[in-house]
Amino acid sequence: MPAKVSVDKIKANLLQPALTSHFEVLIPRPSGLTDGYLNANGLPGFSDKQSKLNLLCSEATLPGSSLATHENNSDFTGVTEKFAYRRLYDDRIDFTFYVDAENYLPIRFFESWIKYIIGESIASGAGRISSKKPEYFYRARYPEYYIAEQGLTITKFERTSKNKKSANHEGNTLIYNFVNSYPISITSMPVSYDASSLLKCTVSLSYIRYYVGAKDYPSTPESSSRSPNGAADSPQALTGAGGLTGAQLDAIEAQDILNTEALSIFSNPQFGTSSSIPPIF
Length: 281
Description:
Layout: H1 7-14, E1 23-26, H2 35-40, H3 50-55, E2 57-59, E3 65-72, E4 81-89, E5 93-98, H4 105-118, H5 143-146, E6 152-156, E7 174-179, E8 182-186, E9 200-206, E10 209-213, H6 246-266
Antiparallel strand pairs: 1-6, 2-5, 3-4, 5-9, 6-7, 7-10, 8-9
């Protein structure tokens, strides 16, 4: 039976929605994108302007993910089961920036980053040909120099909080941390003699995965990584089916992989069928 709900309870539960206009973006800078390089590309003193670049971000997208599944139809008659084996992330994330009239900061920064990735140079140098010349060619740099391993974050917070920590937006934040990010495209920006509007720059950044944290919780929880000795997915030894510890479950999984590999080898026609091969334990 549906339960009666008071108006006060409805207000408390439904009239405090999260709003899309409260967020903060932090744009990283890879190790190879030095102040000297940025100075040569029209961005003097960028270290003092990076906070301005973050503030100019007007639109972002909270990322999503999905699970790749394997379909199993053979265990139970008439029953189809799906088992997860991989987490899939979006291949990119888009950010939209207001473009300032002082120095076109977002455009210059991301153009410089992409230029650095492919080793483009206007001036000729050792082993380089100016991009102005018809015979110009380029060679992309190694990823370790142009990828920002950490630093790209989106923080979703609210204007108010239920506790005394609201001054720092603690307790009601989501921090999306992106791993191995770098720009892969800058969207074309049309200009015209029609009625003026704000110039915006939309940039797509690639990343390999993200993880979510909060200011009052660790952004890198131990429960998401393995311990040095290869044991459980937890600081403490987790127990699984049948009361087994994480280390025991890992050993069983490793043995199962060996069994599968052995059966796949002996299933070759020259060895006969796999049904004649006893399981390996």
